[in-house]
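Supplementary Methods S3. Input chains for the assembly prediction are listed below.
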Amino acid sequence: MNAIFRTFAVAAALMLGLPAVAADEVNVYSSRKEELIKPLLDRFTAQTGIAVNLVTGKEDALLQRLKSEGANSPADLLVTTDAGNLYRAKAAGVTQPLVSDTLSTAVPAVFRDPESHWVGLTMRARPIMYVKGKVDPATLSTYEALAGADFKGRICIRSSDNIYNQSLVASLIAANGEAATETWAAALVANLARPPKGGDRDQIKAAAAGECDIAVANTYYLAGMLTGKDPADRTAAESMAVFWPNQDGRGTHVNVSGAALTAAAKHKDAAVQLVEFLASPESQQWYAQENGEYPVRDGVAVSATLSAWGPFKADSLNLARLGELNAPAVKLMDRAGWK
Amino acid sequence: MNTNSASRLWSVGIVSVALVLALPVLVIAGFVFVPAGDTWRHLAATVLPDYVTNSLLLMLGVTVGTLIGGVGTAWLTSMCQFPGRGLFEWALLLPMAMPAYIIAYTYTGMLDFAGPVQTSLRGLTGWGYGDYWFPEVRSLGGAALMLSLVLYPYVYLLTRAAFLSQSLCVLDVSRTLGNGPWQTFWRVALPLARPAIAAGLSLALMETLADYGTVQYFGVQTFTTGIFRTWYGLGDPAGAAQLSALLLSFVLVLIALEQSSRRHSRYHQTSQRHQSIRRHRLRGWRAAAAIAFSALPLLFGFLIPAGQLAAWAATIAHTVYDTRFLSLVLHSLGLAAVAALAALVFAVLLAYGKRLHPSPPVRTAVRLAGLGYAVPGTVIAIGVIIPFAWLDNTLDAWLRATFQVSTGLLLSGTLAALLFAYLVRFLAVALQTVEAGLGKIRPSMDEAARSMALRPGQVLRRVHLPMLKGSLITALLLVFVDVLKELPATLILRPFNFNTLAVRAFELASDERLADSAPAALTIVLAGLIPVILLSRSITRSRDAHST
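Predicted structure tokens for the full assembly:
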């Protein structure tokens, strides 16, 4: 038994070596996964000599951490996906205006908070995807039309627990009002090929395998499958095509990942410098190539995969509205029986 | 110091320690008094009935699954002799090293409509969608099966230890009274092992209630998914905490039922003399059935999913195993080791304190300290963040006001906060094990030692701890494996630039990149194997040491 206890003690001692703290640094709380942010942070450090410390986690937990830590929080930046989350951080009072001329010229106003508390860094679209040959794209038009009788039992979409669907429904509420959207959601649920389960990739795979004809999913998942290492995923993704809905009206639903400057920031200049770097053409290009997301600024080339889907009109709703309408959207989906 | 004041000191000490450990749960429960707007009315009118039904069904499924898998295999490997028994004895613990969400991802990847199994089935038969029936893995039943596969080892472990430590005389008496092996099992061994079975089952059920990864991925709406949805989707922490409180009441009912069922019985062994077990030799079809019965949980709970992970990992092995990966491994092992030691120390302290002074306040406080096991890790983490940050900020404000110095945040965002969360979450595992071990030591032993003028601390050190050796190692290793697999609290509480294997596996898997997550997942499983094997050996050896 002593041997076991000794092993445990050695393992404990091994852990005490904590990373040293650099002189010039930025502390980042990120709900973007390490894989999708660390390479850029490393590049930033190499170019500027400013060290970046990173904690990744779920957005609401990070927000709770920021709130509880208050003025003593070590975090300078909150990087998160979905405008709803950025909106919530601002509403919680843990952010401050991020003033930068570079950013206001680089990033269009719809992707920025009206009071500059947060700025979008990448854009993602949530279009309709269909199985080539099984669906005539001429029969597709809008998100609203997916509730029609001709799509009965043909649609795959993930659970309403997911914020992408919550934001999509919020955008429908903004466009059509709550009552109409609830009717729509109930009809959409009746059209589903199966109860919602799995993530966006699972919807695409299910459609490719024949379980449904239409999937609603974010573009970077399809791009990830097309360029990924798994041959089965690639085959599945190749059988799908992208349809941009609502092109004659408000445009396809889009969202952003973005950054907010915390109210407690102690390395404000370095933090602003980092956000400017993330919005630079170089970083924007990296996101477009590596993760199949759309740049927020003009003049940046997208990957071949993305350009094959063609240009599209994006919904011009200010993204802060999605955050305001999130709770009504969740309740509406509960009532509509959207699991 | 007279006996009375010493005893009061013990009681006060135990209650204080227990309350500190219960603090995060109490903080969450405190939200019950915060008005939650109309969220409750909305939940009750729409999804709450589903949450309750699904959680109950899931618990029922896991109960059936873990009892059949755990008790059945424990009896076979401890009381019967059949080819491969020695192998199964330890191998049956292996699924314990497999995190539930990982096994869920793995089976979905294999069995889903678009997965290799169904695709080749369609390829062979020419069927298309809707032409055939195939069990749906992502369902309530699937979730119960996944959880049973990785949780039955808790029941197996504790039940087997109980069977092995049952005085053979009792079993022999049963046999001489004309009971066959089956009757002996049902009428003597099983009732005697009931506390151990109940302890194992309650661990499995608490783990089930706290599970988020599996049910969320399978789209099964339970209390846990409801808590997250209310907190995040509806932006209502008070409503979410009230759901958590309701979840806790499930656990309290569970504990109360278990306790009342054995209130009038005592389970101390009357004889400490064990003889080496004469295992009942199985032959022919009986042996074959025993092999099949023991092989099934091992095959589905470990071999198949681990094989799939290995296959995925092999395709990308050259790109991941570097020094950064090594630091993930060290972080995971180090955290698990420290947390396991700490949990053991506190479990012994609380369990022994409760044995010495089983007054209502002490018992309630110890019970409260063990509740964290049934609470989802994220909820515990929030319960840690709030009081720690408050403490840090209050201290900082006071020091600024009085001495014009600022300490910043001392505890928040450190490993200490994370370790505390582990302790809160997993203390129950160590506590259950140590209490079960203490329960088997007759109170007359304490009395004899005390009559020789030993103080309580000395009795603990010189009498109980040596006798408890097996339970202590079990507790240590169980917590170690649990912390290794822990994800949500680690994700929220870890300091800057600090990652673990579980965090790595989860980030990639939740991004739906199963193959990329496989190396980290497989390493968790492999690192968990060593303690699991040690565990099994220590139990077998402790039995052998007794038999003279």
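The mean pLDDT of chain B is 83. Chain B has 23 helices and two strands.
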